[in-house]
Structures are given as C-alpha cells and as structure tokens.
Amino acid sequence: MPSALINVPKRAKRGDVIEIKTLMSHIMETGYRHTASGSVVPRDIITSFACRYNGAEIFRADFFPAIAANPFITFFTTATESGKLDFEWIGDKGFSETASASITVE
Amino acid sequence: MRIAGCIAILVVITGAALAADIPQSDRRSGTSFMGPDSKAMQDDDTANPGMLWVLDGEALWKRKAGTADKACADCHDDARTSMKGVAARYPAFARALGKPIDLEQRINLCRSNHQQATPFAYESHELLALTAFVAEQSRGMPIATGDDPELAPFIERGHALFMQRQGQLNLGCANCHNDNWDRKLAGSPITQGQPTGYPLYRLEWQSLGSLQRRLRACITGIRAQAYDYGSPELVELELYLMTRARGMTMETPAVRP
C-alpha cells in the first residue's frame, strides 16, 4: 500500500518562494543485493519523479539505485497563481503513483 | 608506570561495572543524542518516514478482516480516543495468559480472538503499521508501564537480563547503557537505551522496526544468541526498559540514525 506525504503551504503571497516537501513510501531495492542462496534480488526502484504546477512542469528528478528507501524530495518554487500541484512517481515493476495539493496565492 | 596504568584502567572498569541505575534527573531520550538533521526529520510529520506506517495503520484499523469480518474500529471506534495512552502502558499483564505481553502481541491476540484472522508475522509491514498507529495515539504522553502488581516478578527478570553479561564479548546491556551512555562507540553516541519512540524509523534499517528488533540487533552485537521474536525474555526486557523509562515522553514514531 504505497502512500505519500506532501507538504505544500496552503496559502502564499504572489512572488513568495515556497518550499515543497514530498515523501513517498518505496523499498528502493538496489538490484545489487543477493539472497542467502546467491540469487540476485531484482531491482525495484522509483526511476522518475515530476511535479506540475497548474499543468506546467516545475521540477523533475531521475532516481538511481543509490537513493535510500522512502525517498524524501524537497524543492523550492515561486508562488505565481492559485491552483494545483500534481506529483507523479514512476518506477520499476509498473510502479506509478500520483498525489496532489492545492495552494491559494493572494 | 605501565603496571600502574593497567591497575588504574582495571579500577575504572570494575568501578563502572558496579555503577547503579541512571538517576531520574539524568535520563535522556535517544532524540537528545541526535544531530539537528535527524531531529528535524522526526519533528516534521511530513518528513518523518514513520508517518507512512502510521497512515497505513490507520487504513488497517478501519479494514474488516478475518472470519468475524470485523475491523479494529468496530470494537474500539476512534483510535484517537480509545487508544490514547494505551501504548504508554505496554507491555501489560495478560491475565488469560498469566504473563506480560507487548503491544504487537496484544494486536495479534485481538486479531486471532476477535477478528478470527491469522496473526501478523513479527516485523511485517501490517503489524508495524498497526502498532505505530496505535502507539502514535500516545505521542506526548508520559510512559506509565508497570502499575499492575502482577508484573513485579517479570520486571525483576527483565532487570536481571539487562544486567546479565553474555555473548563472546561478555557484555550486559547495563555495561553500555547505564555505565557509558555519555561516551561514544566507534564515533556514535552510546545512548541510554530508553525505549520512548517504538516502533521507530531507523535510517540504518531504511524501515520502521520494533523494540524487539532493536534488542535482537544489540544482542547480536555483543555476539550472543538473540532470543526469538515473541520470546518471554524479549518481552521481559521490553517491560523492564519501559518501567526504567517511566515518566519519559512517548515519541512514536521516532527517527533514529
């Protein structure tokens, strides 16, 4: 049961620099580990994360095996208009999760 | 000179081995040994990965399970009121079994007796999630384990286990966590071993884990044979540690390095 924690300020002044924090539950199995019997534990990671602000992409990141489990991504953007922030995580084994948050800009 | 030095060291070691329990006023949560980054992670519910388990636990609380087709919420209603302070009293004495049980065992007893479902495995995502959700309802409350007089002999046994030297390194819990908690081991602070935030998210584990997992890791560290999950010894140790931390604040889900 994947779940995400999103922290976006509910309101901001136009032009403010705001911090956005996201936490996604994921095991981030590197693909480099072996079981006791010697077989490789298959890679299972998130490969990309993107954030759209009213449809326009404002942040994107590619993930690799060295990123820890439950990736915590924070970044900054400028509050330009009221609306919605959409988050998307895509990964191995068909992993695809979305979340969204709304913001009021005055 | 060298012999005098050796004698001085021996005196220090034997002196430390006889040290008493930590005075009440000197007790410190593991949080106070952490760096500012880890503290910030613990204090922010949207940065604390333990909250992912709490969220899943909340979903499980409301989900019907077992042949009885009952959810936790069907008997206990809103956990925010019914479970408030419960985790701060565990491990507690189970009269039907005549022995203390910890919160995980209580949840699994409820599962098998009332939901008629198969118990969750120790350290499974579901058991950790439900335990974290229940324990989070006690966050900020003082630990109050040990009121039941029936617990006294079990607390005493837990205390004996805590003092007992064992393993190839011939160490007891007390040799580090009572005698040397103000020092470091391989650059990391030795904490007092106060179980204020379990189940907690350890960065080293990249996961939430129970107090039993932590105890087993420590026992393996002194190169002794770790007790099995759910064994009476681990529950007695949990029980003693919670009474030792009586009055300290619950921090579940805590973050630790």
On the 0-100 scale, what is the average pLDDT of chain A? 95
Q: What's the total helix number of chain B?
A: 11
Q: Which architecture name of chain A does CATH use? A: Sandwich
Percent range for β-strand residues of chain B: 5-15%
The two chains with the largest interface, and their residue counts, are: A-B, 14 and 14 residues
Write down how many β-strands of chain A occur, each being a DSSP E stretch of 2 or more residues. Answer: 8
Q: What count of structural domains of chain B?
A: 2
CATH architecture of the largest domain in chain B: Orthogonal Bundle
Class of the largest domain in chain B, according to the CATH hierarchy? Answer: Mainly Alpha
- Which series of helices and strands of chain A comes N to C? EEEEEEEE
CATH superfamily of the largest domain in chain B: Cytochrome c-like domain
Shape of chain A: elongated
CATH topology of chain A: Immunoglobulin-like
Shape of chain B: globular
Which secondary-structure class do the elements of chain B indicate?
mainly alpha
Question: In a nutshell, what does this entry contain?
Answer:
With 106 residues, chain A is mostly beta strands.
Explain this structure.
The complex is a heterodimer of chains A (106) and B (257). Chain A contains no helices and eight strands. By secondary structure, chain A is mainly beta. Chain A has a single domain (4-30, 41-105), classed as Immunoglobulin-like, CATH 2.60.40.10. In chain A, a hairpin with a 4-residue loop joins strand 7 (83-91) and strand 8. Chain A is elongated, with a radius of gyration of 16 Å. Chain B has 257 residues and is mostly helical. Chain B has two domains: 30-44 and 143-256, Cytochrome Bc1 Complex, Chain D, domain 2, CATH 1.10.760; 50-136, Cytochrome c-like domain (Cytochrome Bc1 Complex, Chain D, domain 2, Orthogonal Bundle). Helix content of chain B is 43%, strand content 7%. Chain B has eleven helices and seven strands. Chain B has a three-stranded mixed beta sheet with strand order 6-5-7. A two-stranded antiparallel sheet of chain B has the order 1-2. Chain B has a two-stranded antiparallel sheet with strand order 3-4. Chain B is globular and about 50 Å long. The termini of chain B are far apart. Residues 6-17 of chain B have low confidence and may be disordered. At the A-B interface, strand 1 of A face helix 3 of B.
